[in-house]
Amino acid sequence: MNLIGRLISMFFGERLRALIVKETKQILRDKQQLFLLMFPPIVQICLYGAALNPDVQYLRMGVVDEAKTYKSRELVSAIVENRVFKIERVMDDLHALTTAVERGKLDAGLVIPPDFDRRISQSRPAGLQIILDAVDANTAGIAQGYTTQMVLMFGNLLEPKKEQPVKADVSYVYNPGLIASWFFIPGVLGLVLTLTGTLVSSVTLVKEKDSGTLEQLLMTPAESWEILVAKIVPLLVMLNGSVLLAVSLGQLVFQVPFRGNFFIYMFASNIYIFVVISIGIILATISKNQRQAILTSFFFNLPLIQLSGALSPIESMPDFFRYLTYLNPLRYYIQCVRNILLKGVGLDVIWRDLAILLIFATVLLSFSSLRFRKQLG
Questions:
Q1: Could you report how far apart the first and last alpha carbons of the chain are, in Å?
Q2: Which domain holds residue 110?
Q3: Which of 12, 65, 77, 340 is 20 to 30 A distant from 356 in Cα terms?
Q4: How far is the C-alpha of 190 from the C-alpha of 185, rounded, in Å?
Q5: Do 218 and 351 share a domain, yes or no?
Q6: What does the pLDDT look like over 186-241, one tens digit per residue?
Q7: In what order do the strands lie in the sheet with 59-65?
Q8: Residue 169 domain flag
Q9: Are residues 114 and 146 in the same domain?
Q10: Separation CA 226–CA 214 (nearest Å)
């Protein structure tokens, strides 16, 4: 702590330095706050990184193969090749198949007609029936696209067509392996910082109101702005530690690349830290106790997260909510993080997002400071 005190004294006056050291010691003694700073980033990065995946695997498929030939068996093998489907049952009639899908025992069904081989040998279309449980519309849509593609590829293998006059050569850049966690982890970094920053900063101030130490600070010669700065600086340092911990976990556990400049990443993160601390201060000023602060934080944080593009693409949202995302600072932070980590871009590309993020930080910090000073008054 003496080293911390000497470093702080290089940048602040003696009175402000004493307040910052006092706040830092108080945070380090509070096991609950240390838990909030360390445990949620670890759990959320690992949980969301592993659980959030748009890919579909091992859907239960039932097969009614009325042809029972070599080609029909090859078709079934081709469909289950990439593990999107697994053959759960082989049935004898369509009624049993549809009943199993209706009762939730199967996710999909494939019916191969008895004239499957004959129609192929005559160069005529061989019809197939694919039944999909569309209660989960997203999964059904992905499964439909996959089965259509595999059936088309199987048909081309049986009867190769002439080369098409227009042919597209697709290249995947920045994420050539199409790894889902590379999309989700940068969003989860913003999600973790939002939840942790708002909760820790609001609980810190509310706890001081409950214990009466905030009133004791008013008895000191310190100005209200010095008290506020002393509250913010330790939180800023601690949340920087959470940022480093979260991005390190993303790289070590999920091999998310870090292609950009580390200092630009930390600069963007620190701007957003001011945003979340400001939101936390606002929550503390409108809350009477810790429980109310925590419950109120969900009212603010859930819309921020859902309208940020962290967990689902903004492009898939309805028009009204897509336009509403422009009022969300988390949207701009996640865009910066994805561009820095995955694309390795510099300030020449993300300066607009950083500028908007800086405006949010300035406005929110000014508003929260005003409310804090009024409360002290």
A1: 32
A2: 59-158
A3: 12
A4: 9
A5: yes
A6: 888 898 889 888 888 888 777 776 666 665 655 555 566 666 777 788 888 888 88
A7: 85-91, 59-65, 108-112, 129-132
A8: no
A9: yes
A10: 13
Evaluate whether 71 touches 120 at the Cβ level (below 8 Å). yes
221: which 2 tokens?
């010669």
Q: Are 184 and 48 in contact (CB under 8 A)?
A: yes
Same domain, 231 and 362: yes
- The tokens describing 69, both together, are 């030939």
Handedness of CA 344, 348, 349, 353 (dihedral sign): positive
Round to whole Å and give the CA distance between 128 and 119.
12
Same domain, 198 and 317: yes
Domains contained in the chain, number = 2
> Contact, 34 vs 242, CB < 8 A?
no
Please tell me whether residues 278 and 351 are part of one structural domain: yes
Query: Is 249 found in the same domain as 230?
Result: yes
Which CATH number fits the domain that encloses residue 107? 3.40.1710.10
Query: Does one domain contain both 361 and 287?
Result: yes
Beta strands in 5-153 (DSSP E): 59-65, 85-91, 108-112, 129-132
Sign of the alpha-carbon dihedral angle for 173, 176, 180, 186: negative
- Radius of gyration (C-alpha) of the chain in whole angstroms: 28
pTM flag (> 0.70): yes
With beta carbons less than 8 A apart as the criterion, state whether 128 and 80 touch.
no
In a domain? residue 173: no
For tokens 């670890």, name the residue: 42
Q: Is the dihedral of CA 284, 289, 293, 299 positive or negative?
A: negative
Task: Supply the DSSP symbol for 341.
Answer: I
**One domain for residues 191 and 265:** yes
